[in-house]
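Table S5 (text form). Sequence records supplied for joint modeling of the two-component complex.
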Amino acid sequence: MEKPAKTKKKHGVSYAKWGYIFILPFFITYFIWSFVPQVLTFGYSFFKMYRSGLDQIGPEWNGIQNYVELFTTKLDGIPTVVKYAGNTMIMWIAGAIPQFLIALLLAVWFTSFRLNIKGQGFFKTVIYMPNLIMASAFSMLIWTVFSVTGPVHSLFVNSNLITEEFDFFFNKVSARSIVAGINFLMWFGNTTIVLMAGIMGIDQSLVEAAMIDGASSIKVFFKITLPLLMPILTYAVITSLIGGINMYDVPFILSKGYGTPDNTTMTLIMNVQQKLSTAKNYGSAGALSVLIFFFSAALSLVVFKFFVPHDSLKNMKKGGK
Amino acid sequence: MANTQRIERADYLSKKGRVMLMISRIFVYLILFFLAFLCLFFFYLLIVNSTRSHAQLNEGFSLIPRGNFLKNLKSAWTDGTVNIPRGMLNSFIIAISSSVLATYFSALTAFGIHCYDFRFKKAAFTFILAIMMIPSQISVVGFIKMCNTFGLTNNYLPLILPSIASPVVFFYMKQYMESILPLEIVEAARVDGASEFYTFNRIVIPIMMPAIAVQMIFSFVASWNNFFLPGMLIDKPERKTVPIMIAALRSADYKKFDMGEIYMLILLSIIPVVIVYIFISKFIIKGVAAGSVKG
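The corresponding structure-token record, covering 616 residues in total, follows.
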């Protein structure tokens, strides 16, 4: 044992070199394809640079004017950025509430010894599947099915639930609900599996002890399972929130990128895309991106504070390696 | 374990309790079947509609398959405006290259941090964890500008190369390595005169194969489904990927299109992933569960 340790020390320096060599590609790639674009985005946000017809305007220093314009350009009396942030959050929350409630229920049911659910493999396979489906294809399918010429529309008309003229995608409530519904369908299976993994990590003897002491399963859930699940639930909520803020594919396909009806399904990232594609407005799109970054960072912090009580934070630190 | 549980269960389940359990089980199964139905219904509808001709589709809602599957497949495959075989080939090239790069280099980075002691090891690890949550969308402005400046629009490199730095894949590899790769193996290889690269390629990679396979599937699917960046970078018809073609269907003039063909195109875009999933779903679900448990 002594000898190899000594040789290792001798060659310690040369081995350390290999550590650097092996992690180098990651960092070079990150620098070129993520860090530089981030810095550029931040930089452009202070410049006036866009295309007006065939003329290129700028780049010319603009200070915080791009940011000011995001809040002074109004749509229906609301600053555009606030409106789009609102749309994004409404659609995320409308999908995330059922997503997390159902995922929690399913995770508890699947892991319950008492219920002893059969066919778990089948159910898990089926509910996770939508997560792997191309979001644009899924949205396109839903659009075809719900459009005025589609089967669901004709089914609703035939059962007198809607009139012939009603278009699911030109009504604020139904258009947003469809976006939220697709997000829910795509993600509740994933969340279920993540939460199940979390519940299975909980020491079952705690649950059994409480059961023997006469606690009801509802009480066990709220007093034992849920508090111990908090760290992983927080992680799941934050990931979902960040995904929600960056929502793009589904509302883009459903509304052809216009956020119809009346910009009520226009999300923040769709707006970035719009600024980039039509006017090549790197300045304004950059400013919006920087805001989205701080918005997601701030919201993650809020979720973190809200969901993790102080004592379980302590537990997490103790438990963490 | 199992025995004691059975005894306990028999203990606290009186007759009334057993009836209650029965009722709650029925309730749970009903909800489960409803959710499973919800997940499968639209795909069933998609498959059924892809077997119906345009005229049959105009008749309205139906759940009975018809016999036009091959006809729709032929018209979708040979369509003049939507070149789906080309799109699938393009998507496949991008997805395969980026999943190979993502898994190989993530394993390499994880190996570098796991097996070597160097000064910035901790800092490097913390840094990767910190950037894990940053969404790529927020840097898209600079990304697009950079690609325009260097003439990389309609090029696949900006869609493939960035996957070398995949923090999430790295994290999974690192976790897996900690549980399965003893440092003694690396030292034994050294004693036998293997170079560090040889050790990684011939000893570590084979040991890491289960993790690499899982992450390759996830990276492949993510790349295959990716719409945001390719949609902004690619406008040449022959370079378009599947999601862009599907999105273009939405903007196309609907009255000119054969609806049976539209359903078939959607089916074609998701079928590779679904087929792979049907065969290895257990494996994938285990991967999701393992990736989520941290620390």
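Note: The mean pLDDT of chain A is 86.
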